[in-house]
Each structure stands twice: as structure tokens, then as C-alpha cells.
Specification:
The chain has one domain: Glutaredoxin (3-Layer(aba) Sandwich). By secondary structure, the protein is α/β, with parallel strands linked by helices. Helix 3 links the parallel strand 4 and strand 5. Helix content is 37%, strand content 20%.
């Protein structure tokens, strides 16, 4: 009887466990920040040289801030598209700041991730995950696009679908077409 009960509930347990695991990465319906909100006061550490990186450093540029982690599968799927967006729009003034919320102990994994995906945009480290609170992130990845004046153009929770017209249109508007 126990083995019959165990075997019949095990698939439901595994499904529930998988659902909870993915919930940390799955998109939410509500935006994290509203259009027109000012950029939060956020500073992290540059992966390149360990210096502080602040959102104010990007004033005058359209800035896409992308919160991610090496263990987040949707983040991994989204990264090649973000790199392509960066390559397409960087000459027009788009900057991307990828903010890793991985633990300090995972520093080497972050470096490997960046190398694996050929990421050329800026990467900052936020091992205390302060950015998740500041950006009201309800999951990973979370992206916020800022206009050149430092105000929110839009926010996106979950992976940005490749070629999404809302996203591309938002980037175009933030860049001033």
C-alpha cells in the first residue's frame, strides 16, 4: 500500500517542486517600476575592474538594466538576444548594464557566463541582491529601460522575447528614434 501511495503522489510532488523552483525565474504580470519613475539610487561593483557602478554614470544614454543570475535558465536563454540588441543599438546610445545577483562565491561562474555568451555590455555584481528590492523584481530576469534623462521608459519581468515589438518600440523611443 505504501509503495502504491508513494508512486502515485511522487509525480505530483515532483511537479510541485519544479513549479516552485521555476517560480523564481518566471515572469510576473505586473510591472516593477512605472513609466516616468526616476531611476533608483543604485550602485554595484563592476565585474571588469571592481569599481563602483551607478545608474547616474549612464545619464544621457538610454539604459537597459537587466537583473539576472547564472543559475536562472530564462536568463541564460535571454542573454544572446540582449547581446544582439546591444550590438544593434550601442552606436545610437543604448547601454546595457547586466546586474548579476549571484553570490560572492559564484564570482567565477559569472565570469564563465559572460565568456560563454560573449557578453560585451557592462556587467555589475550585486551579491547582496539589493537590486531586486530597488527594482521591485518579482522574478528573474527583470529588465528596466531608462530614458536618457534617467526616468523609467518601461519594465519587464521575465525574459524579453526576441524581436518583441513592445520592447523594440520602447528602445526606439528611449533612444529618440
Amino acid at each position: 500500500m505504501y509503495s502504491l501511495l508513494y508512486s502515485s503522489t511522487r509525480p505530483r510532488f515532483l511537479l510541485a517542486s519544479a513549479t516552485l523552483l521555476l517560480a523564481a525565474c518566471i515572469p510576473s504580470e505586473s510591472p516593477s517600476l512605472r513609466t516616468g519613475d526616476p531611476a533608483p539610487d543604485f550602485t554595484a561593483t563592476s565585474l571588469d575592474d571592481g569599481t563602483p557602478v551607478s545608474l547616474t554614470d549612464y545619464r544621457g544614454h538610454a539604459l537597459l538594466v537587466n537583473l539576472w543570475a547564472t543559475w536562472c535558465h530564462p536568463c541564460r536563454a535571454e542573454t544572446p538576444y540582449l547581446q544582439a540588441v546591444y550590438e544593434r543599438y550601442r552606436d545610437r546610445g543604448l547601454r546595457i548594464l547586466g546586474v548579476s545577483v549571484d553570490r560572492r562565491a559564484d564570482h567565477d561562474a559569472v565570469i564563465e557566463f559572460v565568456e560563454e555568451f560573449g557578453v560585451e555590455y557592462d556587467i555589475a555584481l550585486d551579491p547582496d541582491a539589493k537590486s531586486r528590492d530597488l527594482f521591485h523584481a518579482r522574478g528573474l530576469p527583470t529588465s528596466v529601460l531608462f530614458n536618457r534623462d534617467g526616468t523609467v521608459a518601461f519594465s519587464w519581468i521575465g525574459p524579453i522575447p526576441e524581436g518583441d515589438s513592445t520592447f523594440v518600440g520602447g528602445v526606439e523611443l528611449a533612444l529618440g528614434r
